[in-house]
Design the sequence.
C-alpha cells in the first residue's frame, strides 16, 4: 500500500545551524527557509536524489513541533512521510486493522498542497507516520 518515502522531517532548534550542517558539512542541496504559518513551521527542504529531508522549526505560538523540541532539545526525527495512491482507501484499511489515525480522521491539506493524514506513533514502532496522497 505505501509507496515512495516522500520525506523525513527533522525538528531543529536552530534552523540556520541545521541548514549549514546539511549544506556545508553534508554537501546537500538546500532551499531557502519557507514559512508555513498554516502548519506552524518554517521549513528548509533538503533535496536528495531519491527523497527529501525537511528541517522543521517552530513558527508562531501554537507550533505542532514546540512540545517535541521541549522534549528533544537538540532536535530529532519528528515524522516520516510515505506516499499512498488513495488516502481514503489507505485510512479505511488502517482503521480496519486497528491503527489510530490522528485528529478527526479526515485528510487535511498538507505542506505540499496534497491531502495528508498522521498515524499514531504507538501503532507504528514509535514513529509518527504521515501519509500523503501522491
Ligand atoms: Co511531513
Sequence:
Amino acid at each position: 500500500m505505501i509507496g515512495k518515502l516522500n520525506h523525513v522531517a527533522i525538528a531543529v532548534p536552530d534552523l540556520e545551524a541545521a541548514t549549514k550542517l546539511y549544506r556545508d558539512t553534508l554537501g546537500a542541496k538546500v532551499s531557502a527557509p519557507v514559512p508555513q504559518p498554516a502548519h506552524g513551521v518554517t521549513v528548509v527542504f533538503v533535496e536528495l536524489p531519491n527523497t527529501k529531508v525537511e528541517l522543521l522549526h517552530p513558527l508562531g505560538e501554537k507550533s505542532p513541533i514546540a512540545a517535541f523540541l521541549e522534549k528533544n532539545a537538540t532536535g530529532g526525527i519528528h515524522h516520516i512521510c510515505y506516499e499512498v495512491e488513495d488516502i481514503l482507501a489507505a485510512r479505511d484499511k488502517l482503521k480496519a486493522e486497528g491503527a489510530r489515525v490522528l485528529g478527526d480522521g479526515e485528510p487535511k491539506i498538507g505542506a505540499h498542497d496534497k491531502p495528508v493524514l498522521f498515524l499514531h506513533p504507538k501503532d507504528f514502532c514509535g514513529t509518527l507516520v504521515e501519509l500523503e496522497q501522491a
Summary: The chain has a mean pLDDT of 96. Helices lie at 15-25, 66-71, 87-96. The longest strand covers residues 76-84. The chain has three helices and nine strands.
